Amino acid sequence: MRNSCVSSSLQPRLVVDGAELKINEKGMSYWEHELPWHYEEDGFQVTRGSAWSAPGCHLGCGVLIYSKDGRVVRVEGDPENPYNQGRLCPRCVAVDDIINHENRLQYPMKRAVEDRGLNKWERISWDEALDTVEQRFNEYKERHGAESVVFLQGTGRDIAAYISRLAWSFGSPNYAFSLSNVACFGPRIFASMMTTGVFMIGDYSQQFIDRYDNPEWQCPAITVVWGNNHIVANSDGAYGHWVTDVMQRGSKLMVIDPRLTWLAAHADCWLQVRPGSDGSLALAMGNVMIEEGIYDKEFVEKWVHGFEEYSALCAEWTPERAEEVTWVPADEIREAARLLAANSPALLQWGVALDQREDCVFSSRAVLALFAITGNLEKPGSNVVGPELLKYITGWGRELLSFDAEEKRIGTDELLIYKLGLQVASINKMIDHMIEQPEDYPIKASWIQTVNQIACGGVDNERTIEAFKNLEFNVFVDLFMTPSAMAFGDLILPVTTYPERNGIRVGDGTQRGETINAAVPPLGECRSDMEINLELCRRFNPEAWPWETVEEMFSHILSETGLDFEGVRETAPSYLPFEYNKHEKGLMRPDGQPGFLTPTGKVELKSLGLEFMGFDPLPTYNEPPMTPYSQPELAKDYPLVLQTGARQHNTFHSENRMSGRLRPIHPEPTVMIHPDTAAELGVRDGEWVWVEGPVGTTGRVARAKRVAEVTTAIDPRCASSDHGWWHPEGDPENLFDVNEININNLIPWTTGLTGVGANYKCILCKIYPCKDGE
Amino acid sequence: MKALLVNYRWCTGCHSCELACQVKNDLPAGQYGIKLNQVGPWEYAPKKWQYSYFPVLTDQCNLCADRLAAGKLPSCVQHCQANCIQLMDASEAATIAAANPKMLMMTI
Ligand code: SF4
Ligand code: SF4
Ligand code: SF4
Asked: How many domains does chain B have?
């Protein structure tokens, strides 16, 4: 199953080779393990399970946790797990550094409101902590309505469902994702739903328990990595190194990225696109395919709606015109279009870069259109609908929220996408609201779980800090003291890491039946996020939370699958049945008819849904608002196009920086600039610089410190920075240096074209060396 | 004699081998049994890039004798995300290296 590219005769040993494949009554398949999920080996306790945060990413790789005397000694990849096949990225390899870290929070703490910003925390009991939250949230609810308490999360991992249910069962519609304009994953899902009615993922065989050996699977002829560096990021449920797996099996590679990533350097075709201009590039590639007649006419004829209008739009985007906008030479655009058209099946590996601009809905649709007109939907090795065990993206417990409360959800009156397409409140509008505090709708308190918003995700710290300082009561739930909790927390609750707790793994991408299994007891008085939310919710709304233990709760969630927590744990990982070409077989629509899940039953290049909402129904290109073309005057002072959010192997967003093992891999925040630009600016490689830029059109200017990485991997007109930075070793009362090193300070809290998608990856800046002492 | 054979065409520079070894052998942070090196990126011809990573063994590699005895792969090999390193008899490694491009062979 797992190959070595060193020599095919030397296969790494996999215990599952030769093991018996079983199928349960739900049609889910699993390997019969030789050993139970918990066993002893050479004096160690070994616990098999899924690594699903915190710390960690969206993937939930299979792990073997080695522990001794109640302490995690190391974590290894589980060779029996088809998902990662024994491999791990460095973050889980060194996760013991985080679990056993001396600075982890160990008990609840409170701080007086007047001491916000000061390191004057006082230890309290869990009873006092939870009593305080219960009493104060209820007081605000009585006086100002449940909507005066807001519930915030960071990037959605297994905890998200329990936060949404907490908010909604408390009665507040104001459950929000802390990233500006939900600019991650959600916009691409929305764009896909408006195009095909479903969300499709690249087919690396991940839906099959026997993976690359499955006879139905076909290796992609080409993998197109668009706005993603997933070998580093491990994004959206796709294990990044599946791309090297398929390349080793013969897939070609195309990369669309402003940076020369390792993947770009090893691609058959790399298009160095100007940040934010991807929509134009995609339309120009469509132009070439249509001009040259090299698209899949049969598929288009049968399954595409709006091809004529789309063709007319593409006709405007000649490669020559797109060259001016995208900075990609016209000939390269032509060659790329031909390469994609000539290689089928083609797998699309798109990334967050497409969500991180205002026109994301349209540019993502322009990218998806290329895969529609080449017929690369739903066939082996292309892009498929992953089987789903449980609905995950849409939150849990929506039925608990009354119609009246729903009417008050922040953002729904101004932003139609929030009203019709999303269940979260708009964080951007919420920040405005917290600052303005309208008399008839004040915001008083917040529940902040899994997010450190002034180091990561959130933008424009000046405004964010002002907003949260306006609230009377902010509760944090986290592993460590963070800059955000230091700045405006009043109470902080300590949580467990994944090896210290149980949970179920129902993630993005292809879902599989897996559990997170406690290997060691919690540190100090830590409790799991789920235990905390269950306990608190039982106080707020006991009918909505009838479970005594979290395991009972997990079994309830799983009940629609006919399994319970123990059952899933015994057979994990178990795989759901899967079919290709659902649209042909009448398996995609509830009415059982062939077709896609759209009003026309076809792939809607002209979207009826978007038209209904009053948006442009075509994948039109919109120039982002802060570029040398849209802001020529500002660009005189701020000439460089800055993209933020470059991922590093050793960190997941704002996590992991306290690890002594991981930190040396990338010890400080960096900004990539071209040698010519660096020479012009008098900046040397390795030198500290300021990256400074306008905070949108607020009239304010902000800056962040970075180490210059002088490299030809970037265009001379651009700069690229990483994100999520704070110094856990820094002074807590200086907010761990966050205000000096958070690059998101250059990004405004505006709502953009539609209210989804924010310009994290296409803004303007200038760069200059730090002075001595800065 | 044993050798570590790396197909460096595929090494993505992910650092998993470094840390898998460090944790398994309980080496202090900053010390490694296998250490990653980067060469590039630079453009040597239009659209041709030199950009490679090379994991290199140090004196602290003990060849994971305990893991091999237990029927497991060396920790660096098991965790290598690109499946591009293998531990084997040096003579076999030499044969493979002689027949394939982009191989880096290290004996201890
Ligand atoms: S990708 Fe890395 S951090 Fe995420 S679960 Fe796998 S090993 Fe852990
Ligand atoms: S073989 Fe073992 S000791 Fe040697 S580098 Fe690999 S992990 Fe470290
Ligand atoms: S684990 Fe493999 S791919 Fe990653 S750096 Fe080491 S040798 Fe390279």
From this structure: 1
Query: Which of B22, B16, B63 is closest to A85 using CA atoms?
Result: B16
pLDDT 10s digits, A145-162:
999 999 999 998 888 999
Answer for the pair A374, A341: CB distance below 8 angstroms, yes or no. yes
For residue B40, the enclosing domain spans 2-106
Residue A462 is classified by DSSP as H
Q: Which of A93, A245, A261, A674 to mutate to test the interface with B (most CBs of B within 10 A)?
A: A93
- Are residues A77 and B19 in contact, defined by beta-carbon separation less than 8 angstroms? no
**Ligand 2 pocket check for B21: Cβ under 6 Å:** yes
User: CA A12 → CA A16, A243, A271, B102, distances in Å?
Assistant: 12, 19, 36, 20
B13: left (phi over 0), alpha (psi -120 to 50) or beta: left
Domains within chain A, CATH numbers bracketed: 200-384+592-612 (3.40.228.10), 632-769 (2.40.40.20)
**Nearest-neighbour CA in chain B from A89: distance (Å):** 6
Residue with CA closest to ligand 3 atom 7: B11
Q: Is A650 in the pocket of ligand 1 (CB under 6 A)?
A: no
Distance of CA A639 to the CA centre of its chain: 30
In angstroms, rounded to a whole number, what is the distance separating the alpha carbons of residues A655 and A636?
A: 36
Residue A504 β-bridge partners: A515
ipTM exceeding 0.85? yes
Question: Distance between CA B22 and CA B18 in Å, rounded?
Answer: 6
A404-459: per-residue pLDDT in tens? 999 999 999 999 999 988 999 999 999 999 999 999 999 999 999 999 999 998 99
Give chain B's radius of gyration (CA, Å).
14
Whether B7 and chain A come into contact, CB under 8 Å, resolves to yes
* Residue A420 CB coordination number (10 Å): 11
Task: Give the CA angle between residues A269, A236, A411 to the nearest 5°.
Answer: 115
Report the alpha-carbon distance of residue A686 to residue A294 in Å, rounded. 47
Note the pLDDT of residue A4.
Answer: 67
pLDDT per position as a tens digit, A206-238: 999 999 999 999 999 999 999 999 999 998 899
Half-sphere exposure of A161 (CA within 13 A, CB side): 18
| CATH at residue B91 | 3.30.70.20
Can you tell me the distance from the alpha carbon of A305 to that of A616, in angstroms, rounded to the nearest whole number? 15
Contact A364, A181 (CB under 8 A): no
Rounded distance from Cα A232 to ligand 3 centre (Å) = 12
Q: Residue A474: pLDDT above 50?
A: yes
Helical (H) or strand (E) element with B44: strand B34-45
Nearest chain B residue to A77, by CA: B79
A24 backbone φψ class: left, alpha, beta (φ>0; ψ -120 to 50): beta
A269 to chain B: closest CA residue: B47
- Name the pTM for this structure: 0.97
Report helix, strand or coil for A18.
Answer: coil
Using most ligand atoms within 8 A of CB, pick from A92, A655, A656 the residue to mutate for ligand 1: A92
**pLDDT of amino acid A621:** 97
The residue type at B1: M
A711 to chain B, any CB pair closer than 8 A? The answer is yes
The token pair that represents A564 in the structure block: 């319970």
Could you read off the pLDDT of A131-140 as tens digits, one per residue? 999 999 999 9
Indicate which residue's Cα is closest to atom 4 of ligand 3: B14
Q: What is the per-residue pLDDT across A575-604, written as a single tens digit (0 to 9) for each?
A: 999 999 999 999 999 999 999 999 999 999
d(CA B75, CA B56): 15
> What is the rounded (10 degree) CA torsion for A164, A167, A172, A173?
-10
Residue A184 burial (CB < 10 Å; 0-12/13-18/19+)? buried
Interface of B with A in 23-82 (CB under 8 A): 23-24, 29-30, 40-43, 47, 49, 51, 53, 70-73, 75, 77-82
